[in-house]
Amino acid sequence: MSILCVFHPSSPGLPNKVLTHHDDIAATLAEQGVRFAHQPHALRVRPGSAQGEVLEACRAHLDLLMTEHGSAAYSLLNRDGVDPAQVDVRDEHVHEAEEVFAVVSGRAQVGLCLGEYVYSVLCEKGDRLVVPAGVRRWVELGDTPFCLAFRLFASERGVEPRFTGDETARAFLGIDEL
After folding, report:
1. Which backbone phi and psi does 145 adopt, to 5 degrees?
2. Who's near 93: CB < 8 A, 6+ residues apart?
3. Does residue 90 or residue 86 have the better pLDDT?
4. What is the maximum alpha-carbon separation in the chain?
């Protein structure tokens, strides 16, 4: 189930608002310039699969997403259990280009600093989150990560994150605490 929690920075352990209906999540995020959609798909790829296997199974889906969003580049978030080869992504960062975060399998929590509040979106298979360039964000996968997601960007430059060094994200409820 997709969940949106809205926090005031003064109370990172207690959300002001919790939403679980896709339409409510989409409407609340749209007020902040973020788009959210849930579009179920039949792809069956397990996180942790080899990148070539994932790309082969998801090529048509990836091509459709990239065309639909006018994306020029992508990265693959592929975690199943502890994988020291991949950095944990719960560090606050920004991208120079719009990002489409599309969950293929599993789940991930995306934190967004928007105005005076923090919006934490627990995304599941089929969820798509479109985050404008320059928005401070982080991704949290939990103690036992299980997530396969495409991160699409409007330009090649946008793929590389710029880390802010701000550790505020760690104060908010994580994926295993919601």
Report:
1. -60, 140
2. 136, 137, 138, 161, 162, 163, 164
3. 90
4. 45
Q: What is the model's pTM?
A: 0.91
Question: Cα–chain-centroid distance for residue 51?
Answer: 19
Place of tokens 């790829």: 45
CB 27 within 8 A of CB 121: no
Position 166: which residue type?
D
Separation of first and last alpha carbons in the chain:
12
β-bridge mates for residue 162, sequence order: 94
pLDDT in tens, 8-51: 999 999 999 999 999 999 999 999 999 999 988 767 777 777 88
Tokens at 92, concatenated: 């606050």
Say if CB 24 and CB 135 are below 8 A apart.
no
DSSP at 5: E
Q: Cα 62 to chain center, whole Å?
A: 16
Q: CB–CB of 120/175 below 8 Å?
A: no
Which amino acid is residue 1, in one-letter code? Answer: M
Can you tell me which residue has the tokens 């991160």?
Answer: 151
